[in-house]
Structure formats: C-alpha cells, structure tokens
Amino acid sequence: MSSVNGYVDRVWAEGVAGWSLAPRVLVSVNGTALGSVPCTNRRPDVQAAGLSADGVVGFRAPLSLASGDIVRVTTPQGRPLRHSPWLYLPPESEGWLPVSLASRHPEYAEIAVLAGQLALTRFRPLFGQPGQVAAVKLDAGEGPRVACFGVAPRDADHLQHFHERVLTPAGVACPALHHRVGLGKRQALIFDFFPGRPLDRLGPGWEAWLPAVMDELARLQRFGEQHRHRLRARAGRKRPLLHRLLRRAMSDALRWNRARGERRFLLWLLARLVRLPRVLSHGDLHRENALVDTERGDIALIDWDRWGYLPIGFDLALLMRGLPGDTAERLAGGSPAQRLGVVGFTYLFQRLDRPGLVDSEEGRALRRRCRELAGVE
C-alpha cells in the first residue's frame, strides 16, 4: 500500500463524502466524469490523527444514484482514494443485482461473459476489495461463490497449487478455490463466498479480531516450517509489498538532504529487518484482506498471490498499519524477533503515512524501542 491519499467515507443516493490531502478530488459515476470537488471542509478527526496540519481536507459532492451505480473518487493525478470504487446499492436490494443488468452496464462486462458460461441468476459486486471481484449467485443449488476476474493462466496455476498444497492441508481459514473459467486470454477463479466484511470496515473495536487472525498466521507459519524444503524455492507470482517498502526506505535513506541521524538509523534498521527469521507469510495482509463474519464469529484471509517467506512481524505490522507502535507491539506480543519486526516495520509504514513523524516524539519513541528490542534479541 502506498501513502494515504484519503478515504471515501460514505456514498448514499444523494451524494458522496470523504477526505483527501489533495486540494481537489475528481468524481465519476459509471465511468462518466462529473467534475472536481474542492477539499475545504474541516475534518478534526484527520487532523487529530496527524495526517493533516489544519484538518481542512473534507469533501462532499451531490449525486443522484440508482441501484448498481459505481462511484469513483481520485486525486487529480488519478490515484484512487481508499474505498473507491464504491458500489451504491439501496437497502432493499440486499446487495444483489439481476444478471440482466450486466449486459447493459460496461462496468460489469466480465460478469455478462461469465453468465454465458455458468448458470448465474444474480450477482453482487464487491468493490473496495483488492482486484476486480464479484460475488455471483449460481443455480443448481451451489449457493453463492466469488469470482476473481482477469487472472493470467500462469498466475491461476500458481494460486491453485498454493491452495491445494498449502492452505487446504494447513487448515488456514480462507475461501476454498473451486474451479477456473476461461474468459479469452484471462481466467476467472471461482471461490467459496464468505459472508463477512473487511476488518477495515468494522469500525472501533476491530482490534478484538486480531487474535483470531494471528492464530491463522501461526498455523501458516507452522506448516511453512514443516515443509520449508519444498516451499522455499517458490513464492507468489506477485512480489510482496515488503520489497516496495524496503526499496522506498533505502531510497529515502540515501537522499542527499536526509538528516545524518535519520539516515544512519534507517540503514541500521533495514540491516536488522532483512536479517530477521523468515516465516511463511501472506505478504499482502492489509485489513481489506481479512474478512470477518461477526454473526458467526468466523474469519477468512483472502488474496494470497503475494505469499512468500518474509521477515517475521511483517504481516502483523501491515495488518495493524495505522496503530501506534507501542499498541501494535502489545497486541502482537511473541518473541523479541517478532516484536522487533512489528515495531520496525511499523516505523517504516508510519514514515510513509504521517508527514513529520521523524521529528515527532512518537518517531523518537519508535526509534528507541527498535534499538531496545535489537539489544534484547
């Protein structure tokens, strides 16, 4: 994940609202641009989080939406805000749309093609999750499934192998991969439908689900240790976000105007993080990839195409991104190596997300804690 651009907080029949650090945002509905909207409303919550100096970052745009309309909000540079695109569905729809709508709507073109090969009755787009994903209701009593579109055949082979050889025998909580459907040069992967919401959308108290997610990570790590000899040479088809984070930090450390003390600390921290024990990891475990069914008390982890053997603590730091370092360390617990990984990667994420962190008291506290944990290790 890149640095924070802003969020779409709410979409309703008459409008869209959120915030962005850009002076203006661009709003479109069903691919048609409606114009730019200034970010001039005061948002004390964004200011209190340290993401804006004055908090004047909010926007609100009037709309007139119908069931199935898709709202996109981007910065002027075309970077989408979190939770964009957003599908508008009135409560009476229960989230489902008739398949007949797909052929008349360019946003759902792949659903229409899939409907020609499977006995679909209705579909539920799940925008806001990684990739182009939709739930589809199948006939013949199969119940709902999730279709992930636009997958290259080699990537599909790799992911199917990981599900069959790792996730299923390890018993990791994730939707089962049922079959693949060819759609031209790309494929759609059909998974079980998990009736949950992303951890990021549960609101205050989402941290209560962290122990359940950590149990699944521990199960994955134990399986990875037992089968390291045959898994080590493999990895997900996409590179983990770890590589992008480390490259960004190294580039920042070598900038000519970087303060000597911060440069020295960054190089020191990077050297220790890359030497941490490597464990079998999800590789992209932000909170949109952890689903929670609050009624049944179940969880599921999705989007496994960045898996690999990564430094211990990386998955947890990404999952808890945005929490203060001391809170993340307390919730993660574990060995000194794991705590160093959580705090160290939290520092790297916080540097991206919070301008001015380096010179803040929290930044100084995080650097002190990293050194203390390295000493313990």
Automatic annotation (TrEMBL):
Superkingdom of the organism of origin: Bacteria
Xref: InterPro entries: Aminoglycoside_PTrfase (IPR002575), Kinase-like_dom_sf (IPR011009)
Pfam families (alphabetical): APH (PF01636)
Domain Aminoglycoside phosphotransferase: 165-332
Protein name (database record): Aminoglycoside phosphotransferase domain-containing protein
Organism: Halomonas heilongjiangensis
